[in-house]
């Protein structure tokens, strides 16, 4: 869901919510799985999986292997808001400030997630930041963001909040 609210002058408040859940279909031979490319993956600019979370490394939010590679999850929740300020109308150029939070979980079972440490339904990775967007005909939307990931983890799993740029 995305909705846009005009505020004053030409300023716009954009709010969004993305919720997803995927589960295996039952089979007669008990051989059912979800392919890797159908699972949810989040972080950074979201390329190529489409679930951006600015302020974090690309595809590093959610379940990871021991070596730090994404394995994808079965449940996704992302909430965000942007306050957009127009600079030019032709070509379209606007600045923005944003706040986002989201996460990916392996399980679709809410009760199972509640029993796990640091894995409840409110275990959302948070970020704030600013950015700029240019709409160029024949090319599309181009942008640059800088976001502060409050819940970033380093390679050892220790909390390491810091700024991260996203193109």
**Fraction in beta strands:** 35-45%
The pLDDT mean sits at 85
How is the largest sheet built, in terms of strand order? Answer: 1-2-3-4-5-6-7
For the sheet with most strands, the description reads: 7 strands, antiparallel
Total number of strands:
7
User: What structural category arises from helix and sheet content?
Assistant: mainly beta
For the record, give the distance between the C-alpha atoms at the N and C termini, rounded to a whole number: 23 Å
* CA-atom Rg in angstroms: 18 Å
Shape: globular
Report the total helices.
Answer: 1
The SSE order reads EEEEHEEE
Percent helix among the residues? under 10%
As residue ranges, the low-confidence spans are none
Give a description of the structure.
- Helices cover 4% and strands 41% of the residues.
- The protein has a 7-stranded antiparallel β-sheet with strand order 1-2-3-4-5-6-7, with no helix packed on it.
- The longest helix has 6 residues.
Top keywords for this entry?
single chain, 167 residues
Layout of helices and strands:
Elements: E1 2-6, E2 12-21, E3 75-88, E4 93-105, H1 110-115, E5 125-136, E6 140-149, E7 162-166
Antiparallel strand pairs: 1-2, 2-3, 3-4, 4-5, 5-6, 6-7
Structure, briefly:
It is built from one helix and seven strands, in the order ββββαβββ. The protein has one helix at 110-115; strands at residues 2-6, 12-21, 75-88, 93-105, 125-136, 140-149, 162-166. Strands 1-2-3-4-5-6-7 form a seven-stranded antiparallel sheet, with no helix packed on it.
